[in-house]
Amino acid sequence: MEITPNKLILQAFGLEPEGLHVRKFGSGHINNTFLLEKKLDGSKYVLQKINVNVFREPWIIATNQRMAADYLAVHHPGYLFITPIPTVNGEELFVMDNEYWRMIPFIADSVTVDQADNPKQAFEAAKQFGRLANYLSGVDLKPFKASIPNFHNLTLRYSAFQEAIRNAKEDRKEAAGEMIEDFLRYSDIAVTYEQLKTNPEFRDHLMHCDTKINNVLLNKDTYEGICVCDLDTLMPGKIISDLGDMVRTYVCPVSEEEKDVSQIIIREEYFEALMQGYLGEIGGTLTKVEKEQLFFAGKFMIYMQGIRFLSDYLNGDVYYPVKYADHNYDRALNQLVLLQRLIEKEATLQAIIDKCLHVSQQV
User: Which of 200, 213, 204 is nearest to 153 (CA)?
Assistant: First the structure.
């Protein structure tokens, strides 16, 4: 059913529907997003209905963003951090009929891209995520909560994978038998994560936790980074979450939807660009343990996403929307091949990381 903002929602943010053009906006699949444009002066705003099936406690999102914004306003006042526009009553969200709405500024002359088409885009996006993490590195994490609990908890995901294997119907378990064995052979990735997460030198940071390239706004003419957007998953996490998802989604020319696995390759120049961008901003703040795990970040995120797809396939496709019977199987295979390609190039990619770290120390 089509969701559209009604008069009361618009008026809650001080807007009258008669004076607006309203249209669907963006390529995101989680929240319902609309672009509002005033007929009188052309000023624009973005209105979103938060998906409460994904974000069970929307006030956590609002509170996390407000606390981050307050910290940045004091310590980095010139930094562009997209902060929701309060309602006429001063609230971060407008709630009606158990629906949660928020309005955020529209950033003029900005665009997003859904995939990295050149190394410069990878560099600019990674630089913005690194800058945000760096600028927030001194914030007190205690008041922040997880907007999606256990979102990147590989221990939990691996346990769910094992349960899915035990409970799967025989036809699916048999069809996926070889791939199950392949993912189990890489279980050392889950073991390493379990060991790392209790290491005090492997710290929590305030992470974006969804570092796809379309969550960075780029200048529409120069494609230079402007700022990070879509801050719903801003929450405490490990450095491997943000860096790993960039490796997972920037370095391969095809997405997780690609069925032709021969197209899955590791583009070294994109890997180097994102490492330069990210570590150039945050590299100097990392502990020795964190620096040692930068290559592991890619393995961690690809492996986790792969077993999530395979678990969903074994469970009968109950989580990820599918377009055909083996959709989740194909997604899992895609991630397995990507993991294998990444590991094949470990020596080369680690040398790139070492070079970028060395440069970041000189800045």
Answer: 204
Among candidates 215, 127, 150, 180, which has minimal Cα distance to 309? 180
Separation between Cα atoms, residue 208 and residue 131, nearest integer Å: 11
Rounded Cα–Cα distance for residues 348 and 341 (Å): 12
Cα–Cα distance measured from residue 79 to residue 309, given in angstroms and rounded to the nearest whole number: 37
Q: What is the pLDDT of residues 25-72, one digit of tens each?
A: 865 556 789 999 999 899 999 999 998 888 999 999 999 999 999 999
**Could you list the residue range(s) of the whole structural domain that residue 204 is in?**
119-362
Mean pLDDT of the chain: 95
Whether 75 contacts 135, CB under 8 Å:
yes
Q: 75 lies in a domain?
A: no
Q: Are residues 170 and 309 in the same domain?
A: yes
Q: 252-281, pLDDT tens digit by residue?
A: 999 999 999 999 999 999 999 999 999 999
Q: How far is the C-alpha of 239 from the C-alpha of 340, rounded, in Å?
A: 22
**Which positions ≥6 away from 160 have C-beta within 8 Å?**
308, 311
Q: Residue 17's domain is classified under what CATH number?
A: 3.30.200
